[in-house]
Structure formats: C-alpha cells, structure tokens
Write a structure and sequence with these properties.
Length: 87
C-alpha cells in the first residue's frame, strides 16, 4: 500500500512531534504560563504560632470567637422559640 515512504513518514512523525512540542514550549514556561499573583503573599497566609505567648494569645482569640458565636446562636434560638406559638 504505502510501502517504505509511509514508514519513513511515521518514523519522522514519531521523532519530530516530541521535538516540535519541546521547541514550541521551550524552557521559559514561567514566562508563558505563569498566572500573576496566583500564590498569596506571606502576610496573607496563616502563620503558626511557635512562642508560648503567641499560642496563648491565639487560644484566647479562638475562645472569644467561640463564645461570641455561641451567644449569637443562643440569642437566635431564644428569639425563635419565644415567638408565641407554644413551642
């Protein structure tokens, strides 16, 4: 059918296709495909406290937040149950 020419063409495609892909994308992938400001800045990320004082401060902040949310939830439950329909 195709004979030796088809085999030479297929061999050329097997060899040239990866080379063409590597040539197209090249070595400067960061310049072509980087998304600016994709990663958050260090000041925008969570920072794990390591010092004892920092740990206590963070625990107190979490405790205050938990109590605030608890008070808010209890207030909403009291409003909901005190609407006068007997529940």
């Amino acid at each position: 059918m195709g004979g030796p020419n088809l085999e030479v063409f297929k061999f050329g495609m097997y060899i040239m296709f990866p080379i063409a892909i590597m040539y197209y994308y090249g070595t400067n992938l960061d310049n072509k495909f980087a998304v600016p400001d994709f990663w958050p800045k260090p000041e925008q990320t969570n920072r794990i406290p390591f010092e004892k004082d920092e740990i206590h401060t963070e625990l107190e902040r979490l405790r205050q937040r938990r109590l605030f949310l608890r008070d808010k939830r209890l207030e909403n439950e009291n409003k909901g149950s005190g609407n006068g329909n007997g529940n």
